[in-house]
Design brief:
The protein is of the alpha+beta class. It is built from 22 helices and 24 strands. The relative contact order is 0.20.
């Protein structure tokens, strides 16, 4: 997820739509954005620290002189008194200029360590801009489950975490002690001290293993074309039915999949993959259709770039660096010049512009999956971006329709046989899958759950319909588990993950209500302009972000005891990478080998005077004293430019008790810290999940975002390098998540 890549998603999910603060829902809940899928693993208590307050320099106060001429962006009304949206490029450059420069330097760095240091400087600039605020990650929640930890692919990035073919499921809930034993076995296996066989362990303990897995979904796939989407709610289903070149196993080791072997050239520019012979494509009913060849990987890659679904930027500059891709995508170049070629039916060659140390980690992401070229063409498929745009709107294009499982063919461990958007999705084991003996499940079923009745879902978990669930205060499931004894016997705290959920301030708003008339703002034209003007003031943004008491908002769903466990304060997972060697930055500061990336970011935040504690598991942003100081500085700068209070629209999904509680808590903490004479939070009710998603997560672009503050997006890394996060805010490489800030 992205995740979702991911995309976010990232954009990257309710507990359906309550994902940002509800977090992990155990082995059965999936949530929207670049997230989803069950969390398995050990209990991890994040370190909690009490940091002394830092002084951010310089902070203006009410005694500071007011500039004679305000140099920031001011939104003005047109001659008819209507709000006018600004130029995206102008706003982006004023906020992100230094961030973009550092990202470009990092892309041209000579070594991994040099690149990580530059990325850390860029991330510090991103956090200091206060346009986005990392909030939570998945996991860190009380959970009960029958699923053995780490029995599916275990990796922090890509789509492999959504692949369920190796899940080991018991007929009863596992105890925390049993989980600890399994995780100890896993750790030893990773270290080369034995094997990890959770099925044998559970069988010896007297459990009966289950071969049918049922979970929930809140948003059905809008397409079965895994290359025409940036949403995890689409790919989390389909990746179980298709296979790529390589795949991580449950020990985090990269293994051959449809590429049975590969070579890398000495200069790091050419990768040659040897495709497994005899693997077939099958219809939904299991009828053999064609053999998988290297040409199918080229067809998928070509098609992915033509669809321009939001992830195509990952294959060019700043990421995969595949020859000719940027020219094809942005300059009308020929696909013949793209370095992604089938040398014969079983040999795929990929050529890069420059060595990419993390290239192999990218190949588990959905953008590198194949499609059956013959089937695609038979369903009206074409090549070329313009040709695709014309074809996809015609009646003759029927490839990958989410209303018809026969509109796709599959080469993976499962066949998609049912997709009913408001009811059920069903995958059954593909008996002809080349590696069928390793598949532990006969079926995977997703049952629609809009998050409105979590108590009923909990009861179904207890009955054994679902394998597990998260337990939250707001949903009432925590109290239910305590009352029936399941909490004391089986509850554990799920492991936190690499997905980061965040809030974004809309610095260039273009939509103030849906076409249907739903979710309309109550603001006047002048109030619209005043809000955008204020949000383009850095001191005002910092006041908003430091007034955001994430712990209090999080506690509405998770309870006080776990209110901080899943809090995240920087965008990239702080332990995502670490320095290989001692490394010195341009100013002469040396970091020791083994320094984690989060420590680098913290150092540069401190250098900037950015008052953020980047440690996981604490509320590292909330600082009411600093918030009030920033507010006074903003008021001095904005004097005569806006009329206070500034109105901030927040859309929430009202049928969800968790979302409603979170929205009201957000309003309370912002207004109580900053004062309603300065900021008023307008809560705008979305009565359907479609309306909620349309306002934020599924907004087509920045201009379509219907909010001033949106905290329903997240991003899971697509590959093993910090730029998988940071590129999502870099306009030079299409910045997928900039739309959460109203840009592009």
């Amino acid at each position: 997820m992205k995740n979702l890549k991911k995309i976010l998603a990232l954009l990257l999910v309710i507990a359906m739509v309550a994902a940002m603060f509800v977090g992990c829902q155990g082995e059965t809940k999936t949530t929207e954005t670049k997230e989803a899928n069950p969390t398995q693993g050990d209990t991890k208590e994040p370190e909690k620290t009490d940091e002394p307050e830092k002084t951010d320099e310089p902070i203006a106060t009410e005694t500071s002189p007011v500039p004679l001429e305000y140099e920031g962006y001011v939104s003005e009304l047109d001659d008819e008194g209507n709000y006018v949206r600004a130029d995206d490029e102008e706003i982006y450059e004023s906020i992100y200029g230094r961030f973009g420069e550092l990202m470009e330097e990092a892309r041209n760095a000579a070594t991994n360590d040099e690149r990580f240091i530059l990325y850390a400087q860029a991330e510090a600039e991103l956090l200091d801009s206060a346009t986005m605020i990392p909030n939570t990650t998945r996991g860190g929640a009380y959970t009960i489950s029958r699923v053995a930890p780490r029995s599916k692919p275990y990796v922090q990035w890509g789509n492999d975490d959504d692949r369920l073919h190796s899940l080991v499921i018991a007929d009863q809930f596992l105890t925390p002690a049993e989980r600890d034993e399994l995780l100890d076995m896993w750790a030893k296996a990773v270290a080369g001290e034995g094997t990890y066989d959770p099925a044998a362990y559970l069988t010896e303990k007297g459990y009966t293993l289950q071969t049918d897995y049922t979970t929930t979904f809140g948003t059905a796939p809008v397409t079965l074309d895994w290359l025409n989407t940036s949403s995890q709610s689409d790919t989390e289903i389909t990746v179980n039915c298709v296979e790529g070149l390589v795949e991580y196993d449950n020990l985090s080791q990269l293994q051959p999949a449809l590429a049975e072997s590969w070579e890398e050239s000495e200069d790091g520019l050419t990768y040659t993959f040897h495709i497994r012979h005899g693997v077939k494509w099958y219809t939904a009913e299991g009828t053999e259709y064609a053999e998988v060849t290297a040409k199918d990987f080229v067809a998928g890659f070509h098609h992915m770039m033509d669809t321009k679904a939001g992830l195509e930027g990952l294959v060019g500059a700043g990421a995969a660096e595949i020859v000719g891709t940027d020219d094809y995508l942005y300059n009308g170049g020929s696909f013949d010049n793209v370095g992604y070629k089938a040398l014969d039916d079983y040999t795929l060659q990929v050529t890069l512009n420059k060595p990419v140390p993390f290239f192999m980690t990218m190949l588990t992401y959905s953008i590198f999956l194949p499609i059956c070229e013959d089937f695609y063409l038979s369903r009206g498929g074409v090549y070329g971006a313009d040709e695709y745009t014309a074809a996809v709107s015609s009646d003759t294009y029927t490839f990958g329709k989410n209303t018809d499982v026969s509109s796709q063919v599959y080469c993976g461990p499962f066949l998609l046989q049912k997709l009913q958007a408001d009811s059920e999705i069903l995958c059954v084991k593909n008996p002809n899958y080349y590696n069928a003996d390793t598949v532990t499940l006969n079926s995977i079923k997703w049952v629609y759950d809009n998050g409105e009745n979590p108590k009923a879902t909990y009861e179904d978990v207890v009955k054994g319909i679902y394998a597990g669930t998260g337990l939250t205060q707001a949903a009432g499931t925590l109290d239910m588990a305590k009352a029936d004894g399941n909490f004391d016997k089986y509850a554990y705290i799920s492991e936190t993950e690499s997905t980061t959920y965040f809030g974004g301030l809309n610095v260039n708003r273009g939509t103030f209500g849906l076409e249907s008339g739903a979710c309309m703002t109550a603001k006047t034209e002048q109030e619209k302009a005043d809000t955008v003007t204020a949000l383009n003031n850095k001191n005002f943004r910092k006041a908003m972000m430091h007034a955001f008491d994430k712990k209090t908002v999080n506690a509405t769903s998770r309870g006080e005891d776990l209110a901080e466990t899943n809090l995240r304060n920087m965008y990239t997972h702080p332990e995502f990478v670490k320095l290989e060697n001692d490394a010195t930055d341009a100013d002469g500061h040396t970091f020791a080998a083994g320094t984690f990336y989060g420590e680098l970011v913290q150092y540069y935040c401190d250098q900037l005077g950015c008052q953020v504690n980047c440690t996981d598991g604490i509320d590292g942003w909330y600082n009411p004293t600093a918030a009030k100081e920033y507010l006074e500085a903003a008021k001095a700068e904005l004097d005569g430019q806006v009329t206070f209070p500034i109105k901030i629209d927040v859309v929430y999904y009202s049928p969800s008790d968790s979302q409603t509680a979170q929205a009201n808590a957000y309003k309370s903490v912002i207004e109580s810290t900053l004062g309603t004479d300065n900021v008023v939070v307008n809560l705008i009710e979305a009565t359907t999940s479609d309306d909620f998603y349309a306002c934020g997560y599924r907004a087509a672009n920045g201009e379509a975002g219907n909010f001033d503050m949106f905290y329903g997006s997240g991003w899971g890394p697509d590959y093993g390098d910090p730029c998988t996060y940071l590129n999502t805010f870099d306009h030079a490489v299409d910045g997928y998540m900039l739309k959460v800030e109203g840009l592009f």
